[in-house]
Amino acid sequence: MSDAPDEEPIPVKVTYLRMDGPPRRPPPPPPLIPHALMRAEAPPVHFYRYLYNTVGRPWLWTRRRYWSDEELELVIHEPSVEIYVLYVRGTPAGYAELDFRGLPDEADLAYFGLMPEFVGMKLGPWFLHWAVDALWSRSPGSVTVNTCSADHPAALAMYQRIGFLPYRREDELLRPMPRDVT
Fold first, then answer.
1. In the chain, fewer beta carbons within 10 Å around the N or the C end?
2. Rounded to the nearest 5°, which phi and psi values hold at 165?
C-alpha cells in the first residue's frame, strides 16, 4: 500500500479512558427497528477491512489500513479478540471489537462505531452499553477505551456518560489515508 509520503500527518489529541466497575446507569432501551448482533468469528480479512474502513473513514481511522493482511489476521483471529457486528434490517450497521488479551487486569474496547448511514439513529448509546456489558462479563479489573479529536464529536461525552473516566491525554500524529485504499 502507498504510504502517501507527500501528505502531512494529521495532529490529534488522544484521550485514554478507563472504567473500574460496570456502568451504574441502566442501559438504554434496545432499538425499535429490526436489529441483530452477531459475533464474526475469525472473519475474513476483507470483511474486517470493510467494517473498519467504512466505520472509520469519517473519523480518520488509518492505523490498520497500513497493516498487511497477515498482520491484521493475527489480531482478528486471536481467540481473545471478539468482533461483534450490529445488523439493522439485515445490513451491517456497525461493529465492536472487544480485546480480552489483557485479562485478568484489563479488557479493552479496541474499536467501536457505526456505519455513516446509521449515525444519528440512537443506536450508538445502546450498542456501546451492550459492548461495555460484554467486556465486564469477563470480570476484568478495568475496562479501557480511547478516542481522539478526529473521532465523532459526541464520542468522548458518550464514553464519559456511560462511566469511563479520562486518565491520560497525548498529542499524536495520524498517518494520512492511504491513496489506494477506499
1. C
2. -120, 135
